[in-house]
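Protein modeling request. Please complete all fields; requests missing the sequence field cannot be processed.
Requester role: graduate student
Desired output: 3D structure, token encoding
Chains: 1
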Amino acid sequence: MELIDEKLMRAAIKEAEKARDSHEVPIGAVIVLDGEIIAAAHNLRETEQNATAHAEILAIEEACKRLGTWRLENAELYVTLEPCPMCSGAIILSRIKKVVYGAADPKAGCAGTLMNLLQDSRFNHQSEVVEGVLKDECGALLSRFFRELREKKKMEKQNNQ
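Delivered output (161 residues):
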């Protein structure tokens, strides 16, 4: 694993922590072009009550606006959780060159876990995929969030009895 990948994944983790602090599922993403972060985002699904407000989608939107184009051909995406089908589709359509993710997603991962949409030769674009960068840190963020959420719901249930 390259040190640059770790450095950029740490930037994505900082975004995930922003999501956690806003009571969102802690997933963060950054988009990099020529070694510079050009977009950063975190999940806002609950805040915006929008099913498409995933970190990757929001980062892609920001990068496209910043560059003035929908083609992100030389860009790299760093994300704390393996992209879902929707985000994988957006990655393919925006032509992102490389995707680096932290934790695998056994329920919705489409960069190699359930399926690999990002490298399916039937599409007109494929992305390089690097998996498992700082996976323990990325996974711990998610595990802690969901454990705390379950404990909170359990306490609420007990208080309502």
